[in-house]
């Protein structure tokens, strides 16, 4: 399995170890899972912004009342 190294201060390392331990993880698992989660969140947010931009450029929204009429309800 590949290894990624990061440099942190002694205080940062101690802090990360304590947070990882508090969450029941070792520091490696804590950093891996949180890095991946953060990356996924960034991708999700970028996708949301792009889709909202496309929606604003081509808004085809209809009101709730119009939808009910269209569905015959």
Automatic annotation (TrEMBL):
Signal peptide: none annotated. Coiled coil: none annotated. GO terms for biological process: regulation of DNA-templated transcription. InterPro entries: DUF6290, Ribbon_hlx_hlx. NCBIfam families: RelB_antitoxin. This is DUF1778 domain-containing protein. It comes from Enterococcus faecium EnGen0180.
């Amino acid at each position: 399995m590949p290894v990624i190294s990061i440099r942190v201060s002694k205080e940062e390392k101690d802090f990360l170890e304590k947070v990882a331990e508090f969450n029941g993880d070792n520091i490696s698992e804590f950093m891996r899972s949180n890095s991946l989660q953060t990356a996924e969140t960034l991708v999700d947010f970028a996708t949301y912004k792009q889709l909202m931009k496309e929606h604003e450029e081509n808004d085809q929204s209809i009101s709730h009342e119009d939808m009910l009429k269209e569905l015959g309800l």
